[in-house]
Amino acid sequence: MYRRFALLSVLIISSFAFGQGVSTTRPAITGISHMTLYADDLKKSKEFYDGLLGWEQVPAGSVESGVRFYANHLQYIELQFPPSKGLAIRFGGIGFSTSDAERLRRFLGGNGIAVPQAVSVDQKGNEFFQVRDPEGNNVEFTQEGNHAPNAGKATSLRMSTHIIHAGFVAHDRAALDRFYKDLLGFHLYWEGGSSAGHTDWVMMQVPDGTDWLEYMLYLPANPSREQLASAYHFSPGVVSVAELEKRLRQKGWTPSAQERPPLLGLDGKWQLDLFDPDGTRAEFMEFQPVKEPCCSRFTGPQPSPSPNW
How far apart are CA 209 and CA 178, in angstroms? Predict the structure, then answer.
């Protein structure tokens, strides 16, 4: 709804010839700004994101395609109607915050990435543009304007105030690394697998913050919709998963068959999985590990709650 027409000018990536014709230096990439998901029933989705998670709906009022649910003044989940019925992949794209959208656009263009001819500006004054990564994922970069949404819902009512990471299905780690690591400056934060000698998850931390992107490498050749919805996920951070579960139950939440009890991940952090009405996984995760991680060590700073609105 916000950006549908502005994004029509975005070009499809034609090459990844990095290192050619660099026109500028890369500006800061500070964290995740948003994740776009497809939702079949926006009213049911509102019950989850607004009613259960306590995130601020923008615009307020009736729920229309393009509605956003803010975890904090910068980060949100955006819901859109799917482009076709029965769509198995509910992932529409991921967004990152940058200190200078225009300079980043020129930087990417100078390194062989197809970019739009100019940044777009939405009604809030945010400058943004979109590209595609090597596996065709929509990736948006946003420079925040001076008109962040007003907080109508108390921060204390939110189950989390910081989206600390987001993940998507990945097939070619090397190709993705050339884009996110070599070009954009993301660095390996942690990696691990369910069995020795095998890597299932690769966490790539933004160069100028604590949020990270997770490559989900473990899916079979023909995954089910449920497997896809679990792999394409976002992760709200919390101080205590035990306290989170207590608060959820006070709001009437009871675990579904999918929603397992809290578990200690191989990365040494407690987590609790919830699923929205379309099956997309919200992987609530504690900010700090409680034990040494399996498989590899953390190589970057740990996240923390976002400042109040």
Answer: 20
